[in-house]
Write a structure and sequence with these properties.
alpha/beta, Aldehyde Dehydrogenase, Chain A, domain 1, Aldehyde Dehydrogenase, Chain A, domain 2, 6-stranded mixed β-sheet, 22 strands, Succinate-semialdehyde dehydrogenase (NADP(+))
Length: 477
Amino acid sequence: MSLLEGLEHSLIAGEPYHTEQHFSVLNPATGEQLAYVSEVDEQGTALALRAATETFNTLKTTSAKQRSEVLWRWYELMMENKPLLARLLTQEQGKPLKEAMGEVDYAAGYIQWYAEQAKRSYGEVIPANDTQHQLSAIKQGVGVVLGITPWNFPLAMITRKVAPAYAAGCSFILKPSEQTPLSALALAQLALQAGMQKGAFQVLLTSDSAGLIKPLCQNTNIRKLTFTGSTQIGRILLEQCASTIKRTSMELGGNAPFIIFKSANLDDAVAGLMAAKFRNAGQTCVAANRILLQQGVEAELLPRLIKAVDKLVVGDGLEEGVDIGPLITLEAKDKAQKLIDDAIEKGAEVIYQGKQQSGLFMAPVILTGVTSKMKIANQEIFAPVVSIMSFSDESEAIELANSVEEGLAAYFYSQEVSQIHRVSLSLDYGMIGINEGMVSNPVAPFGGIKQSGMGKEGGHQGLDEYLTVKYLCQKFD
C-alpha cells in the first residue's frame, strides 16, 4: 500500500478502524477537503488500550538492540519518503514546502537519536554495606503512554515522543490534532513497515478531544501522559491525571523575549529574528514574541528589519518561492488582528504592514512602542507579527523578559562576554538562544519552566522521561 493511501481511519492494533462518524481535514491554503476521516468510538478506544497493554508486556522481553534496529529502519523509511511526507505536511498544515522538508529531517532526527540512545539506558551497581548483599538499580519502560500532539509541527512533535517511548520499551497511543491527522497516520504506517509491533504505536482520530482524553487520563492502564499544547489545556490534563498519579510531561505555551543589546552584531540579530519570528508563519511555541531593543539601537536595526521582512512572500506553501503560508484557522487570524488592534489603541505604532491578504493568509506586521500593558505582550501571538519594546539597560531587559508567567525559550544578542554570562544565568527560561535564533535540536533537551511545563524532550533527558528506576536488593547465603 502506498504511504498516502488509506489515511482515513484510526490505526488500532495495526489495522484501520472504521466508524460511521466522520470529520473533514482541510487544506488551510485552499480550503479544499483533503480527507474525510472517521472518528474513533469507545469500542475502538478500548481495543487500542488493550492492544497497547498487551504490547507493553511483550516489549519488556525485547532487547534494547532489537528496539534500536526498528527505530533505525523507521528513520530510513522516513528519509526514503521525505518528498511525500513533506508535501502531505504542507497540504494539511500550510507551511512552505521548504520548511516541511526541513521538518521531515528534524522529525527523523529524533528517531535517529533515540535509535542510538535505546542502548544507553544504563543502570548502576551500588556498593553495599556488607558482603551478603548486592544492590543495583535498573531502568525499565514506564508503561503504556498516551500522547497528545498539536498541529504546528505534525511530524516532529510526534517522533520526539514516540521514538524515546519505544526506545524505553513503552507502547504508545497517540491523539494527534484533528487539523493534521494525516501526517500522524503516515508516520504510524512507516513505523509498522519498520517492524514496530502492532500495538506499539496506535493513532486515535477524533474531533472531540476532551471526550476521548478524559477517560484515558483517568484510566490506570495508562501510566504516562505526554502533551504539547497550551498552558490552559495542560492545567486541565494535569488535574485529570492526578487521580491516578500518572507520570506527565508538559510542553506548554511560550512568550519568548528576543533581546538585542547595543553590543550585538545587528546583521546577525536581524537574521536570527527572522528565523525565530517567521518560521511557520510565527506559529511556534518558541517564536520570538516580544522583541526587546536597547535604546539607541532602533535607528540602525529597524531599517534592516523592514528590508528583510519586505522580501517575505506570502502564499500557498506548495508554490515556488513562498516564505509564509496560511494561518491554521480563521480564529487564529482573528485573534492576531485583535492583538494588533488592542496594541494600536493603547499607543503602539505600525511601522510596517504587508499587503492585505484574504482567506487564512496574513501579511507580516511590525509594531513599535509596545508596552507590558498591551495584550500582545502577554499572549502568544502565533502569527507573523513583530512587537517591539524598548529598554534602557541590562537590568530592565532582564526584568521585562522575566515578567511573564511563561518560561519556555528566550533569545538574546550580545558580543560582551561578561554580559552573555550574566544574562544567561538571569533569564528564567528552560532554553536560551545566545546569538542564535534556532535552538531546537534532537540531541539537546527541549522544555520550559514556570507555566511552560515540565519534563524534557530530546537529549538523553528525553529517554529518562519514559523510564522508571527499579531498585534490586539481593541477599546471598
